[in-house]
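User: Hello! I'm new to structural biology and keep hearing that structure can be predicted from sequence alone. Could you demonstrate with GCN5 family acetyltransferase? Please show me the input and the output so I can see what each looks like.

Assistant: Of course. The first part below is the input, the amino acid sequence of GCN5 family acetyltransferase. The second part is the output, the predicted structure written as tokens.
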Amino acid sequence: MMSVEAGWRRMAPADLAAVMAIAAVVHPDYPEDEAVFAERLRLAPEGCHVLAGARGDLVGYLVSHPWPAGVVPALNSLLGAIPPDTRNWYVHDLALLPSGRGGGAAGRIVAEIARLAVQAGYASLALVAVNDSTGFWQRQGFREIDDPALARKLASYDDAARYMRRDLQV
């Protein structure tokens, strides 16, 4: 269980090696190159955070960025740029090592990203839920969106992947 001294902070380029190590443990079936995380950090630094444990070691991360609603970026691919006039904030990845779980840290960073998105004028949050995480995301206010146009893209994750969205009050 996570210590109460642990907390979220903005990700820095120096954190990328630790982020990659966490991703390898938490999401071994969804490998992505460090360049993908580095680009997300460069394009949307306000949406990239790391969870530091009580000893300062990183035990989790969140990577998120603006991206059009109803569109799922391909796994392990560079975005190039954020499309203009995007009104949706996309949660690319939330990963916590077992030592970072159980203290409410995941819910806190989702609430913070939602607050930041509202403050910046975004209308919704969206994500692809994997690893049987649909229940967690539902508790954070997300709902499944059944869109046949997304079926092929979701299948590239796994059979249980679900596109989910949370409307925001702006």
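User: So the tokens describe the shape?

Assistant: Right, they're a compact way of writing down the 3D structure. Reading them back into a model, for example: Residues 119 and 170 are 8 Å apart (CA to CA).
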